[in-house]
UniProtKB/TrEMBL annotation:
One of its GO terms (biological process) is mitotic metaphase chromosome alignment. InterPro entries: Spindly/BICDR_Dynein_Adapter (IPR051149). The keyword Coiled coil applies. Signal peptide: none annotated. The keyword Disulfide bond does not apply. It comes from Cyprinodon variegatus. Residues 82-103 are annotated as: Disordered. This is Uncharacterized protein.
């Protein structure tokens, strides 16, 4: 019976080895499934992140375009106001020059028609504290 016991022992060991091989194969399949699931999740996250980055990129591009249009508008408005103020300054300067010319002409006419003392009094009354001295 020793041969039969040995045969039984070998069959038991074979069955045990086959069970261990089956368990190892099952564990390998489980690991492969887990790797596939992880790869799938990684791919999904990569797609989500790529989409999010594309949306952010699009939003930032639109924001930059808007700010560039605003900048161009402000530059145009600045140039327009600058031109307008320059024109107003030139008109004001021309007005002052005409007023000065008229006043000078009036004074020259008075000088021709008045005595020196009267002219001095007229200038003092017109210009307040301005003292003009003439030598005659």
């Amino acid at each position: 019976m020793a041969a039969e016991d040995e045969l039984q022992l070998l069959r038991s060991q074979l069955k045990k080895s086959e069970e261990q091989a089956r368990q190892a194969a099952q564990a390998g399949l489980d690991l492969l499934r887990q790797v596939d699931e992880l790869q799938e999740r990684l791919d999904e996250q990569r797609v989500e992140m790529t989409n999010a980055l594309e949306q952010d990129k699009y939003s930032l591009q639109k924001e930059v375009e808007l700010k560039n249009r605003m900048l161009e508008s402000l530059q145009s408005e600045y140039e327009s106001v600058k031109k307008q103020q320059k024109q107003q300054l030139e008109e004001h300067q021309e007005h002052l020059e005409r007023s000065h010319s008229v006043a000078l002409s009036e004074l020259q006419n008075k000088v021709g028609h008045q005595r020196p003392g009267a002219l001095l009094l007229a200038l003092r009354s017109k210009h307040g504290s301005v003292l003009l001295r003439f030598r005659f």
